[in-house]
Amino acid sequence: MKLLEESSGFEGVGKYDVPQVPHLTNEKYADCWSLPLVTLTAIAISLSDVQNNKVDVLLRSVSEGLTYVKHVEQTLNATDKYEIIQKASNTLWQEVDIYHTWLGNKLPNPAHQVNTSKEILQWFRDTAKNKATNVESKNMKDSDNSSLHKLVSADSMYRITQTILASHNANINQVSQEDLFLQLSLMISDILSACLTNLPQVIAMKCHTNVIEKREETVQTAAQLLGETIQIMNALQDRELPSLKPDELPFIDKWRDCFVHPSP
Predict the structure, then answer these.
(1) Of 247, 252, 228, nearest in space to 67 by CA
(2) Cα-based distances in Å from 109 to 91, 103, 146, 246
(3) Do residues 39 and 166 lie in contact, with contact meaning Cβ atoms separated by under 8 Å?
(4) Digits of tens for pLDDT over the chain (264 positions)?
(5) Sequence ranges of the domains in the chain
(6) Is pTM, for the whole model, over 0.85?
(7) Are the C-beta atoms of 103 and 97 separated by less than 8 Å?
């Protein structure tokens, strides 16, 4: 709740990634809610100048939030193209949360010569590009889940860091690590808030399953989810949603496109 209260809207959904930044591969993988949350969090905890207690609070908040994000993704984004990205995100989150690493690189301060916000963002961008190049050169992405997950994670990191660097232009040199941490936290809060506006639909769908054998279990899950998230839903209900059709609201790419290309 504290993380969600850091923002009052959803504008961050349109700031983490823009169409002008190319993908690292010819294949454009679908985006999901959890992957940018994990990627942004990885950048945030790499900022060594930020107080440890702030980093710890962010990690705990994102961890709690991802519990409910998974309900949204598994209920409303349950197709093969999304499940690939969700699995990659889940694998990456285990690494970030438990081991404080990103694709094998220790966080914070992944490289000793990296100190400023600009250098940290550039390091992640360049490392992501190198990781993707190495995976593709081995031509293992179709047969090796680990390689596919690395490719998806690297592509997400490249696009996000390049977007942030481009948004600041020459002013990035004046952005402190504390300022960058705040910007990342706001984007995380906005994306998490946007995702969790779908909770009422998730709960309703769990209550109306047609499979009799699973109905009791899913209704119990829905009741528990309602009890745990009623405060979240109440906090988000007064926020103005973007101009999207109801069947578009479960998808982060639809939200992003709406903010990047707003309707006249």
Answers:
(1) 228
(2) 21, 14, 25, 42
(3) no
(4) 999 999 889 999 999 988 888 888 777 788 899 999 999 999 999 998 999 999 999 999 999 999 999 999 999 998 888 998 999 999 999 999 999 999 999 887 655 667 899 999 999 999 999 998 888 766 654 556 788 899 999 999 999 999 999 988 778 888 999 999 999 999 999 999 999 999 999 999 888 766 666 667 778 888 999 999 999 999 999 999 999 999 999 999 999 999 987 765
(5) 21-197
(6) yes
(7) no
